[in-house]
Amino acid sequence: MRVIRITFVAAFAAFAALTANAQATRPAATPAPRPAAPAPQQPATPGGTAAQIAEGKFAVIDTDAFADPKQGIQRLVAAFQTVEREFKPRRDEIQNLKTRYDGIVKQAQDTQKVASQESLAALADQADSLKSEIEQKQAAGQKALDKRVKELTDPIYKDIGNALQSFARARGVSVVFDLSKMQGVVMLVNNGVDITDAFIADYNARNPASTASTATPGNQ
Question: What is the pLDDT of residue 52?
Answer without folding.
Answer: 53
